Amino acid sequence: MLMPRFALRRCLAAWLVACAVHAGDRVVVRVPDPLSEALANGPSAGRIIVFLKSTRCREEGEPADAPFFSDPQPICSRAVAGVRVGSEIEMTGDGVSAWPGPVDSLDGPFLAQAVFKRSRDEAGVRAAGNMIGPPVEVMLRRDADDAVELDLGAAVPAPETTNTQQIAWIDEPSPMLTRALGRVVRHRAAVVFPPGYHDVNHARRVWPTVYVIPGFGGRMGAAREIARLLWTPESERTIPQAVHVVLDPEGAFGHHGFADSIMNGPRGAALVRELIPLLEERYRLVRTPEARLLTGHSSGGWSSLWLQLTNPDFFGGCWSSAPDPVDFSAFQLNDLYRDENLFTNADGSERGSFRRPVGPMEKVLMTVREEIAMERAIDPSGASGQQWDAWQAMFSPPDATGSMPRRLADPQTGAIDRVLVRDFWSPYDISRVVEKRWSKLDPLLRTKVRVLVGDRDNFYLERAVRKLAAKIETLRAATGAKADGAQPDRPCIEILPGATHDTAAVISRGRFALEMRAHLKRHGLGD
């Protein structure tokens, strides 16, 4: 099948200082007739993105799986107002965003992959409707005239969502979110049934529910793995025998965190007031707080903790691992309330964003500056769908355009907008929420909340968790708060020695499963 060509033509007339664009260089997208139907079945505007991955890159996956945190790779893109049959779209010169510099500055063998990112409902590169070509091996030489052609593939199909005995897929319009955002927004989730759900002779007819929130980039497709585990014979002794609902946290700007916000709409309220009542009406679910449990890792860990603390009487327990920053005075390595710059420390050294432990030492593999620069290479408007852009959509109001979130920091200099932090971000600081609502939340923290994080988290997330733990201890000491004895007092927060972001996920998964089983049994909801 013929496909459009994404051509990167390097015609180096001279090498200019600072990797200036050379006369004659052209990057073009040509669209032949065979893809006219695919183009007609979606928006014609969006961004053309080229992901490059050195053949020496340590990360697995295709180039379009970038950004690669342990080994950042080149990215370039350009906005397109309309892609149609016969189009020739220039991808060089003004309007092109690139990191770490123009393609002309690169040397060596690469895998290259072209993407037409046009989905308006989901931020991910692999969202249904986007067009992605296959990876192609290319050789780039700084001192030679090169021509590289990349095929732009057909549209990404929608994921398979056929209902089975194990999984039911939810795709329902949200009146609340649609009204708030002025466009149709849908609830998406996957309902995983335990084997006993379909057994007419089973002692339980109405089931508790575990709401699972995937981490950043995760989708409701994770339900397939949960179903596989839940339907193994051993699961009766190790996994909570409950209906598991895998929520889809992906929105137009990336992971929306199930937090009510200006840019993403009332995501938490819509979940509690629309989606969960719909599920409890449609399926045989127990409609009491102690039967509604939350869990998640990383961004899903933050989301689950946020939902529990902001809906203390609706959910019965939260199990969060390695949550995104829960105290904004330790936002990774930044203190957003005091620091002037997001990229550098007071001494001018670069702030790390991703580290990897190496024995007793550690190695910083990606800085904050690099991470944000890669996001800008994907989409300089702030709609890359990556981590920092997603946080801005969660916590910030619109910028002057009215359509994009206001930036936390200047993307060129790193200067932090402290007024933005004070007025708009701070209400989402979980440590401050706990302090503000201490009398209400202390009993909940003792009995309904569990947070685990590794002390060598790759994203420095243990720093904020330690701050939250210290805040809780200080508040208890100041108020003389004690357990009421109604339920066993347990540590709310645990720091796992030697654990990283990934190993903490494995450790917590096993511990949380047993603790959730104990919770359900304690409330008469376990087998």
Keywords summarizing the entry:
527 residues, alpha+beta, Immunoglobulin-like, Rossmann fold, 3 domains, eight-stranded mixed β-sheet, six-stranded antiparallel β-sheet, 26% helix, 23% strand, disordered N terminus
Q: Can you summarize this structure?
A:
With 527 residues, the chain is an alpha+beta fold. The protein has helices spanning 36-40, 175-181, 223-230, 235-238, 267-282, 299-310, 368-378, 387-395, 418-425, 430-436, 438-447, 462-479, 501-522, and strands at 5-10, 26-30, 46-54, 75-80, 88-90, 96-99, 108-117, 131-132, 136-140, 146-151, 167-173, 186-192, 209-213, 243-247, 250-251, 254-255, 260-261, 265-266, 292-297, 317-321, 352-358, 361-367, 449-454, 493-496.
What's the layout of helices and strands?
Blueprint: E1 5-10, E2 26-30, H1 36-40, E3 46-54, E4 75-80, E5 88-90, E6 96-99, E7 108-117, E8 131-132, E9 136-140, E10 146-151, E11 167-173, H2 175-181, E12 186-192, E13 209-213, H3 223-230, H4 235-238, E14 243-247, E15 250-251, E16 254-255, E17 260-261, E18 265-266, H5 267-282, E19 292-297, H6 299-310, E20 317-321, E21 352-358, E22 361-367, H7 368-378, H8 387-395, H9 418-425, H10 430-436, H11 438-447, E23 449-454, H12 462-479, E24 493-496, H13 501-522
Parallel strand pairs: 13-14, 13-19, 19-20, 20-23, 23-24
Antiparallel strand pairs: 1-2, 1-10, 2-5, 3-4, 3-7, 4-6, 7-8, 7-9, 11-12, 12-14, 15-16, 17-18, 21-22
Helix pairs in contact: 10-12
